[in-house]
Amino acid sequence: MIRRTFAPPWLLAFVLLLAACSLTPRRTLTLWHTLDEQQERALLHLVDRWNANGAHPVYIVPQRRTPRAQHAALLGKAAPNIALVPAAQAALYSENGLLRTLDDLEQGDQGFNTTDRADLFPFVFEAGRTPQGKLIGLPLGGTVRLMLVDVNWLSEQNLPLPIDRAGLQRICETAAATGACFAAQMNGVMLQEWLRVNSASLLSPDNRPLLDDAQTRQLVSSLVESIRNGTIVAAVSDSQVTNEFASGRVPIAFEWSSSLRSIASLVAAGSAHEWDVAPVPGSSVGTRASTLRAPLLVLPHTDPASELQAWSFIRWMLDTEQTAQWAIDTDEFPARLSAITTIDPARAPKNFARAVQRIGAAARVEPLLASWPCVIEGLDQSALQLTTSQSVSDTLASAQSIAAERIAAPCALR
Fold it and tell me: Which range among 40-49, 90-99, 373-382, 387-396 shows the weakest confidence by mean pLDDT?
């Protein structure tokens, strides 16, 4: 006689519940982007990590699009659940009412706590904040302008690492005796940072251009004089900047953090001097002048449930482990200071950890305006004109007129 045993009712219910859950498909959310191949691999790496975790409520499907196709589709209200877009385009979509604001999400129960906020760099909450104070997107990280310094030269001249305008001025006065002080590409970003270094700005608090006022004319005139007398090398490209520094012809150069790997290789093959990194010096200690650029993760309007689930993915992407992986795979700055502790120095560019520690909190975002790329494009032309014999006053008057015209209209995708 076979003895039969029966499972208790609670165990049977538990097994049936597990079976039901295993048969329930996870909801799918789409993520649009226009990343290059290296950045796309980094994104797919993280999305695979998210999707492999069955505890996450949704399955993310990334879709790479051309910039023009994505831009047209978003303006046409063909909304994905998440989009990674240039900051200026995010501003345009927000102006057209196409994006969900994130303030309630990032401040809510599923947002960032006090510990998170102390760890996340200020640019995380500044990059996607509109002039009206609304948060419309968050960056995964960013590319930052930094100052490269020839440590051997500083030691020979008995000068400290410059941390403010006065320190930079001392270096330039010393370098002028034998050659140039620093190299930088002469463009709109250079003009923007030169004004920041000298306690000025391209824009008024209400976003009016300030290119033709007395202070700007005086500061730009001093910059042009330094270029024309050879104290400053006004480079025509980033590669010229790195070559000037790598060869030892200038003790300081201003470059983007994305160039750290190539800089290390060029210095090793050139003068082989020891070099360091620091923020672009502000007008005084503690002021921020280093420009940061980064695309933003945004939430196009869909439905409340999908938006909340999409937010959970964005929030996860900004945890330490994910932002560290993004930095390793892209050479961008991570969103958090704690990411440095998990990044293998052997996989990062030389001086990367030091750059993040020193410059992450000093990074300063550009105005979140749909017109800003076209304003900077116009300033690029004006900056080049300033390196010739053209009048500073005439060039700035023309730049003011162009900037005032362009800032009033969205910058069309070209």
Answer: 387-396
Using left for φ > 0, alpha for ψ between -120 and 50, and beta otherwise, residue 203 falls in: beta
A 10 A CB-CB count for 335 gives 29
Report d(CA 300, CA 97) in Å as an integer: 9
Greatest CA separation for the chain = 109
What confidence tens digit (pLDDT) does each residue in 388-412 have?
Answer: 767 899 999 999 999 999 998 877 5
Strand duo 290-293 + 58-64: pairing: unpaired
The CATH number given to 143-291+368-407 is: 3.40.190.10
pLDDT digits (tens, 9 = 90+) for 349-372: 999 999 999 999 989 999 999 999
Number of residues that this document lists for the chain:
414
**What are residue 400's DSSP bridge partners?**
none
Mean pLDDT is lowest, of 18-32, 48-62, 187-201, for: 18-32
Do 28-140+294-361 and 143-291+368-407 show the same overall fold? yes
- 166-171 contacts, C-beta under 8 A, 24 or more apart: 167/281, 168/197, 168/252, 168/281, 171/251, 171/252
Alpha-helix residue ranges (DSSP H) falling in 96-213: 103-107, 114-119, 122-126, 151-156, 165-175, 188-197
**What is the domain partition of the chain in residue ranges?**
28-140+294-361, 143-291+368-407
Give CATH for domain 28-140+294-361.
3.40.190.10
Which residues are within 8 A (CB) of 72 and not within 5 positions of it... i.e. 6 or more apart? Answer: none
pLDDT at 207: 87
**Cα(29)–Cα(13) distance, rounded to whole angstroms?**
31
What is the spatial distance between Cα 379 and Cα 28, in angstroms, rounded to a whole number? Answer: 43
Residue 3 has pLDDT above 60, yes or no: no
What global pTM score does this model have? 0.88
Spell out the SS3 assignment of 268-325: HHCCCCCEEEECCCECCCCCCCEEEECCEEECECCCHHHHHHHHHHHHHHCCHHHHHH
